[in-house]
Amino acid sequence: MADFQDFPAVEWRVSDALVDYETAHAFMERRVAEIRAGHAAEMVWLLEHPPLYTAGTSAEASDLLDGERFPVFETGRGGQYTYHGPGQRVAYVMLDLKRHGSDVRAYVHDLEELMIRTLQAFGITGERREGRVGIWVERGTGKEDKIGAIGVRVRKWVSFHGLALNVAPDLSHFGGIVPCGVSEHGVTSLKALGVHAPLPDVDQVLRRTFEAVFARRTVDID
Fold this sequence. Notes:
Number of strands: 12
Shape: globular
Distance between the termini: 22 Å
Order of helices and strands: EHEEEEEHEEEEEHE
Strand content: 25-35%
Number of helices: 3
């Protein structure tokens, strides 16, 4: 059995092809168990899903406006309904939070900080909002759009699920749900804000920013 200290760096994986939700979820379940047992390193996995909706533990049935549009998956993460699809960078973050202060609130704050700093690198001001998890962009005259979602689950201090940053998804796909239960505001993306950002460029910034926010070195895996 590998010793816990044999894994000083976070493994960093990027999938170029779309990954179906069941495959990703099964992988996270296995990896989280391995991290808990000291058999594997922590990991960040960047991917895109085919179009789908996921329901968190606080999801309200009335917020699923069109359940026939895309597949809907129940998930153990926190939060409500959200959309995943091509052009959206999903980061599944599997960390042993005992190595990060054993503080779930601080962990969520750090995920928000990761998105805020990443957006800043592309000239976009992302902001937190009291009582609303995720990252928001002020559009003027009181209008705000969500650009980044967060949904986490923690099992015996190991995290999984993570964040979704809207780079260039089809924003009309959000129309089948009330995203995160917030109907009075909309959703946006880097592309909708006039920023052309290829996913590899976003990934580079995410990785660099992750290493700064979480003070952790990362290594590539196949």
